[in-house]
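Observation: inputs received (chain + magnesium ion).
Thought: call the complex predictor directly.
Action: predict_structure
Action Input:
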Amino acid sequence: MIKTTIAEVYKYVDQEVKIGAWIANKRSSGKIAFLQLRDGSGFIQGVVVKADVSEEMFKAAKSVTQESSVYITGKVQKDERSPLGYELLVTNVEVIHESVDYPITPKEHGTEFLMDNRHLWLRSRRQHAVMKVRNEIIRATYAFFNENGFSKVDPPILTGSAPEGTSELFATKYFDEDAYLSQSGQLYMEAAAMALGKVFSFGPTFRAEKSKTRRHLIEFWMIEPEMAFYEFEDNLKVQEEYVSYIVQSVLENCSLELKTLGRDTSKLEQIKAPFPRINYDDAIKFLQEKGFDDIEWGDDFGAPHETAIAESYEKPVFITHYPTSLKPFYMQPDPNREDVVLCADLIAPEGYGEIIGGSERIHDFELLKQRIKEHDLDEDAYKWYLELRQYGSVPHSGFGLGLERTVAWVTGVEHVRETIPFPRLLNRLYP
Ligand code: 4AD
Ligand code: MG
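Observation:
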């Protein structure tokens, strides 16, 4: 007997196979039972025809409960109507473990209930599809950076510094010292870029943000590339090529998942480099003309502002050259203008907001030292970071892409809580 998975049944058309699976759903009549089977690799319909199996077997198939685990045996058949293209003509159902009173029934449930049952909710077809797309974006990330000469470097999670401002830190104890959970690996990635040239990281980051929006997580995963000798323009080029690459990879390798999610793929098909740009000054003018009277030069953008700007474009848009006062201490000033920095945020289409923050970094020792002072940061904690500007300092740039916001945009799901297996939110640490 061939033991296989749902994803691989296409190899065994008209052959009998055995699959370990769960019963996602079931419906039956007097003569036929339809079992919706899932095994992690995918979903397939199993058809049990009363006339083809023993009476005992038909009874067992009719009474098997939702989420019971089974070994199912059946003949693989082509089926044009199913999303997978195949179904299973079941010959045997062997119950491994009977599931009793599974809490997530096929009826509608409220979000809090589903979040309390996140450990089970992950099994649903929709959540499965989102996790598969997340996985594809991670796979494509490694592929893109490896193909382009980057090395993966892992910055620490426990740190003594605060690259993105001191107000949103998770403080902890490191024996007798104060420590923080990493908000960003950037500063360490800058050190790594001076050793390896082009580097990227992928890991969890933490922000004790009191924001309760559909774009904010307390713990989120970030991809942070950093490149020696890359200036502002070079940085934007990597970003638009990388984002295009991941979107096109998802289109190519996750068509079934995007269909499950009801995603409008025509919007994604347009996501190809280059991306449009607007500088901060023009973005402010644009918003004022649109009727946002409350915003003026020097203000940061909120979600409605970002959405209004993004709506003018079909691709993600870079907002560049923000006022120095709005951005972290490490950003390189515009050589033509002291009041703005060489930075860009990449705003996703369709209201998904900022998915990337990046910039050229200050490479002058004196200027960086001055900025650390101005920002009231502890100079001792940044001694090593300053030293990167003492031994062969070079222009360099990098950025951070938030994985969950990117997954939300690509899948079209409303809220980032569905784009990470176990979301950490303002009021949620369970499960
Ligand atoms: O713009 P941010 O704060 O930039 C940095 O941390 C830089 N040090 C990155 C770098 O240059 N290496 O964060 C980068 C991205 C944002 O654009 C957003 O996609 C995501 O991280 N992000 C969040 N995602 C979910 N929940 C949150 N609370 C997030 N905060 C930032
Ligand atoms: Mg940002």
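Thought: report the result.
Final Answer: Residues 163-164, 184, 186, 207, 209, 216-217, 220, 222, 224, 354-358, 398-400, 402, 404-405, 416 surround 4AD (ligand 1) (CB under 6 Å). The domain at 118-418 is CATH 3.30.930.10 (BirA Bifunctional Protein; domain 2).
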